[in-house]
Amino acid sequence: MSQLPDSQRIVITGVGLVAPNANNLTDFRQALLDGRNHIQEIEHRYIGKVPAGICNFEETKYRKRKENKRGTRAGCLAVYAANEAINDANIDLNNCDKSRIGVYTGLTEHGNVETENEVYNISQFDYNVDYWTHHHNPRTVLNSPAGEITLNLGITGPHYSIGAACAAGNTALIHGLQMLRLGEVDVALTGGVSESTSSFGIFAGFKAQQALAKHPDPNKASRPFDTQRNGIVVSEGACLYTLERLEDAKKRGAKIYCEITGYHTNSDATDFVLPNTTRQIECMQAALKKAGLNAEDIDIVNCHATGTPQGDVQEMRGIREVFKNCKNTYINATKGYIGHCMGAAGSLELAGNLGSFEDSCVHPTINLNNIDPECDCPNLVVNKPKEGVNVKTILNNSFGMVGINSVIIVTKFEQ
Q1: Which DSSP state fits 325?
Q2: Where in the chain are all domains bearing CATH 3.40.47.10?
Q3: What does the pLDDT look like over 212-253, one tens digit per residue?
Q4: Tens digits of residue pLDDT in 359-413
Q5: 1 CB contacts (<8 Å, ≥6 apart)?
Q6: Is 159 a residue of the active site?
Q7: Regions of the chain with pLDDT less than 70
Q8: Which CATH class is domain 10-251?
């Protein structure tokens, strides 16, 4: 039971998402329980065929085709997820103060896609810049996806993006929580967005690092913890949450998915790319402390688990250290289903586990045939769900390049 007043307790009342294997939370949850992933092979300019997670959704459900054409792919994903999150929370925007809604989108990167496309376009005209689009600047500013949401929904409160590499989904959630606690907004629309699959540079960069996954079957390319894992599957996606103060959610009789009870972010300060186990341990421990919980109170740990040889080992060392005496803490990972959705990864992976509060199942890590001994861990759920688990707390790891770590802890809501 939280000791905070209801004005400081922050709850999730809406979830909107689009992922490579589903376009709503119900279908996403079922896909994870069924072991259904959806990674396909795409032909990328300059680099050839690569596995990727591509979203297939109704792009004109909430925005006209010409608006999508003027905006960005990230904006298209974000607008869809934002509308779904608001509708799921049963918030009537026509009868609320839109100046009191904040929009905070977590991003790994933004603008790469648009710039690469324009450079390619003018290359077809002998690099004549007269053919460069006048839409380029608003498309590439970092606040663009969040701004596109406000344009679509008529929200006049603050909007901006949180740049936190692949920890951005969690970090944006943390920021939304803090803005609500400070009283800056009454509703926070927040989570992660990524359009990375359209960027040649992302694929080429991971390939140069020898961290781009490959496999004859694209659905088996993302293999967290497996001895045959060989890198990251780049994916797109979005997952946005409606966050409110508990007192406000109660007043309007909102359904409540869970309460955010713990969080933390920190920095490795050691390397541009290689993770730091010690800092990850400190991040998990600090989140537990803020939540007023012990490690054994956590029922599910969702790993960041990108499928890179070194990254998986470093993270699992930290998890084994923090949860070494926790016989009833189950471990899973999500990227085998959807690849690495970059800025959207943390928020999507958290969403995929929320159903555990109701169905008492822990979704498995898939594509795991031969566990790397350095990644083995007690209670690692492999290839089929673990049923009959009384889930009350979930810890979600999300780590990113240049040494940024973020952890979110959510708790089943109790009065």
Answers
A1: T
A2: 10-251, 263-411
A3: 999 999 999 999 999 999 999 999 999 999 999 999 999 999
A4: 999 999 999 999 999 999 999 999 999 999 999 999 999 999 999 999 999 999 9
A5: 414
A6: no
A7: 1
A8: alpha beta
C-alpha 392/C-alpha 412 separation (Å) is: 5
Token couple for 337: 């289903």
The reply to whether 304 belongs to the active site is yes
Active-site pick, 175, 215, 340, 363: 340
Catalytic residue among 44, 76, 159, 166: 166
Residue 258 annotated to the active site: no
Q: Which tokens is 295 given?
A: 């490690």
CATH number, span 263-411: 3.40.47.10
Residue 161 backbone dihedrals phi, psi, to 5 degrees: -105, 150
The two three-digit tokens of residue 155, written as one number: 């929200």
Helices (H), 243-375: 246-251, 277-291, 309-322, 335-338, 345-354, 356-359
Instruction: State the CB neighbour count (10 A cutoff) for residue 172.
Output: 34
Exposure string (b/e) for 371-408, b if CB count within 10 Å is 16 or more? ebeebebebbbbeebbeebebbbbbbbbbbbebbbbbb
Q: Is 339 within 8 Å of 235 (Cβ atoms)? A: yes
